[in-house]
Amino acid sequence: MFELINVSKKFGHTQVLDNISLSLSPGSRTAIVGPSGSGKTTLLRLIAGFEMPDSGLITMRGTPLFSPTVSIPAHQRKIGFVPQEGALFPHLTVEENIGWGIRASRQERRKQVEGLMDRVSLDRQLARHWPHEISGGQQQRVALARALAQQPEIMLLDEPFSALDTGLRATTRKATADLLSQAGVAAVLVTHDQNEALSFAEQIAVIRHGRFAQSGTPQMVYSQPIDEETALFLGDAL
Ligand code: ADP
């Protein structure tokens, strides 16, 4: 459904992404793991359309989103983005945050917001609350609902669970994974946390210095790591 083919990106003289290729199918779950500074966030920003590559091709259902002659901006891509904590507009209520990008009458928007709150298991009574009045886990659900409002085909998750404590992190992760798979939305999770990657994804891509050092199923990457660095990284998960 979505393909990134030989994509490269430099910032100044630094080669941040070097010939990266990635395929996503509907409902699939991919984790991108790698050390800080390896290019994970830049990769998500290229998929979303917040940054353009220097070279390569990005296609959705065979139609170019980026090529030498085409460059489709973020708001025209059906791609949702859930960043790390602090992603909500602090001066808007829960309801206003979720409904922010919905172009519809007030009544219709409220109906859609309620439906989205149900989908992410947020109590409707929280609709008029401010972000600072709700918990971290609830804030992440609001961010997810806001991204779902755009009816994305791909959901990009940039360390979205990192601020949550361990128990809540596991339940929020599972709920998010189930919701996106059922909706047929391809999920791409960036994480530092090996356990998170192994339990969330069907496909893990290990990124190192802007290149995929290895990609495969969690079992494959775990049992046959490509090098010692990957083995040590995944070994920490035990
Ligand atoms: P990660 O998410 O894996 O920590 P990033 O994609 O954020 O890595 O960053 C990869 C490299 O690109 C880092 O060296 C970072 O300093 C650099 N970088 C990221 N964004 C920019 C930018 N807008 N301008 C210049 N350098 C950047």
UniProtKB/TrEMBL annotation:
Query: Has UniProt tagged this entry with the keyword rRNA-binding?
Result: no
Task: Domain (ABC transporter): give its ranges.
Answer: 2-234
Q: Example GO molecular function term?
A: ATP binding
Indicate whether Signal appears among the record's keywords: no
Q: Which UniProt keywords apply?
A: ATP-binding, Cell inner membrane, Cell membrane, Ion transport, Iron, Iron transport, Membrane, Nucleotide-binding, Translocase, Transport
Please state what the protein is called: ABC transporter ATP-binding protein
**Species this protein is from:** Phytobacter palmae
**First-to-last residue of the parent protein present:** 1 to 238 of 344
